[in-house]
Amino acid sequence: MSEPKAPTPTPGDTYKGWLFKWTNYIKGYQRRWFVLSNGLLSYYRTQAEMGHTCRGTINLATANIAVEDSCNFVISNGGAQTYHLKASSEVERQRWITALELAKAKAVRMQAESGQSQLGFTEGVQSTLRTLGSKVEDLSTCNDLIAKHGSALQRSLSELEGVKLGGDTSDKIRQVTERATLFRITSNAMINACRDFLALAQAHSKRWQKALQAERDQRVRLEETLEQLAKQHNHLERAFRGATVLPASPSNPTADSPGKGDASDDDDNEFFDACEDVQEFITIPADPKYHRSSPSPFFLLRSPQSQEVVPVRKRRTRIPDKPNYSLNLWSIMKNCIGKELSKIPMPVNFNEPISMLQRLSEDLEYSELLDRGAKCQSSLEQLCYVAAFTVSSYSTTVHRTGKPFNPLLGETFELDRLQESGYRSLCEQVSHHPPAAAHHVISERGWTLRQEITVASKFRGKYLSIMPLGSIHCIFDKSNNHYSWKKVTTTVHNIIVGKLWIDQSGEIDVINHRTGDRCHLKFAPYSYFSRDVARKVTGVVTDKDGKAHYVLSGTWDEKMECSRVMQSSRGGENGTEGRQKTVYQTLKARELWRKNPLPEGAENMYYFTQLALTLNEQEDGVAPTDSRRRPDQRLMEQGMWDEANAEKQRLEEKQRSVRREREREAVRLASTAEEGAPQDNYTALWFEQVVDEATGEPTHIYKGGYWETKEQGTWENCPDIF
């Protein structure tokens, strides 16, 4: 097709047109739309991209323009930016060279004038400031004189009032007149000085406003240039990664050529290397047509939160630093190999000053992911946010090698963040053997979360395995979508020798019981020999028919991203044990979640997050069974570990005594029953056991009444556990 004839460039005009730009040895020259404006040469894939996606920009003020042949020319800024360009004809090339030279000359001239203007502006400001300073000193002097003469005038008036009419009357009147005249003269001088000051300020205000606007414009240009540089750097990195996995085309040589080794800056997608041990699929860029017709929905979903300012309680940001107490670990652990962790008497030296109920509440650190999910129109998009929330709950554990306190039977913990985050959370220890905690969260932003977790743990000598049992459920009010999933295994390594470190491994299936949608997440275990990134998590979101719609990737300690799947196909037999891997063609990844930075000094505060620092903060009105009221935990937080150990033993013995009494009562009741089998008659206060309709598992669900009891302050039914 013939192109419209470009206008002859003139100084100051914006010049636009098509040129061919060298990208790499695989793609060669690619047709791009170039725009020359304000001394900057920018390019786009198409004219439609001009409003939103610039592919690169070079500043002509510092650039070198060189002609190679009748159609080719090169623009370079002497650094990392070099554009090898080709026009459709020699005439077209000459038009561009003329336009570029004119724009470069103008940019150099403006840069020089800007420097001179800046120097003149600085000198002018200094002179004006000196003048204004002098005027301010005049005003200060006048002020002192007015105060002095005003006081003298007041004294004269007072004396005049006490003088009897006689010979000295005329003298007093004359004194008052003289002082009044002096006061009027000084006041006039003050007024004149103020007028001069005002006139001077008004005269320079417009000039300063103009100079300020020029500085703002220059800053905007610098910011735009930096943004373009960042984009180009990002493109180069991605092109480099792509070049390491893409085979060379038979029709394109792979030998280096001086001056044309530019990495491709036109690749919008990432190539994920095939993982030999973990990943069961490969993602590759989708066809460009999908980018034009199917924008990612996640850009639209990430709407800013409400800007309404609501006064909220100021919560603490620090706790006392962790003391440095030594302890012979092997003397305690050598007789515990193979036993359950819940049955091992542990000193507080291994703990962190929060309970397991509070640790469970930390899953809400990133509750905003569920807030976003509640706004989704598509259940598949919603599932992506639920999956990201699932992964985010592990981000708080990466440095947390301390063991939370085992809750006492009947212990509770409330987390009322209705004002800050729109939810209320309640946990209760509903069983002691096996230890089980029930958790219920209700949010004003359209979702409910509930779970019952039983922790099974084994000490294996070198490492400690923690296996959470039970399911987590999330129900969204608007769509009635009901999701459930389980937790993966947590492993604490180097228990006896070396530095403790934590790993998460296993697989999770997040299931939508209403639609049949599913997200399969895989937490890769750490391996010294693996070439993959540590703590890697991958996942695929599929519908009820097994068709993939989204691919998730990231790490459980940093971030999760999501890519929309456009097409999928089976690859060769390069998976483990000869299995075929699925190849997904995806759009560019969008970030779903990123970990918040730890507070300053977190390494001295058990590596607590900002939320964790507030969990054990004293609050009025909580139940007498609340973890905040637990004395051994409070003593440990305050650094009194010996006292905390003694108090911990007292509480555990009290709990054993109550349990023995309850068992005796159960035996007595069983002796009068027909079955004759003793049953533990303990029932939870705020939760009741039912069979879950979605999973068929027995679980404890919230039966209500806690928050109403708190409002009334009637805690008579709570057991005395502390």
From TrEMBL:
<keyword id="KW-0813">Transport</keyword>
<feature type="region of interest" description="Disordered">
    <location>
        <begin position="639"/>
        <end position="663"/>
    </location>
</feature>
<dbReference type="GO" id="GO:0097038">
    <property type="term" value="C:perinuclear endoplasmic reticulum"/>
</dbReference>
<keyword id="KW-0472">Membrane</keyword>
<feature type="coiled-coil region">
    <location>
        <begin position="205"/>
        <end position="239"/>
    </location>
</feature>
<dbReference type="GO" id="GO:0006869">
    <property type="term" value="P:lipid transport"/>
</dbReference>
<dbReference type="InterPro" id="IPR001849">
    <property type="entry name" value="PH_domain"/>
</dbReference>
<keyword id="KW-0446">Lipid-binding</keyword>
<dbReference type="GO" id="GO:0005829">
    <property type="term" value="C:cytosol"/>
</dbReference>
<dbReference type="GO" id="GO:0005886">
    <property type="term" value="C:plasma membrane"/>
</dbReference>
<dbReference type="InterPro" id="IPR000648">
    <property type="entry name" value="Oxysterol-bd"/>
</dbReference>
<protein>
    <recommendedName>
        <fullName>Oxysterol-binding protein</fullName>
    </recommendedName>
</protein>
<dbReference type="InterPro" id="IPR018494">
    <property type="entry name" value="Oxysterol-bd_CS"/>
</dbReference>
<dbReference type="InterPro" id="IPR011993">
    <property type="entry name" value="PH-like_dom_sf"/>
</dbReference>
<dbReference type="GO" id="GO:0032934">
    <property type="term" value="F:sterol binding"/>
</dbReference>
<feature type="domain" description="PH">
    <location>
        <begin position="12"/>
        <end position="105"/>
    </location>
</feature>
<keyword id="KW-0597">Phosphoprotein</keyword>
<keyword id="KW-0445">Lipid transport</keyword>
<dbReference type="InterPro" id="IPR037239">
    <property type="entry name" value="OSBP_sf"/>
</dbReference>
<feature type="compositionally biased region" description="Basic and acidic residues">
    <location>
        <begin position="645"/>
        <end position="663"/>
    </location>
</feature>
<keyword id="KW-0175">Coiled coil</keyword>
<dbReference type="Pfam" id="PF00169">
    <property type="entry name" value="PH"/>
</dbReference>
<comment type="similarity">
    <text>Belongs to the OSBP family.</text>
</comment>
<feature type="region of interest" description="Disordered">
    <location>
        <begin position="242"/>
        <end position="269"/>
    </location>
</feature>
<dbReference type="Pfam" id="PF01237">
    <property type="entry name" value="Oxysterol_BP"/>
</dbReference>
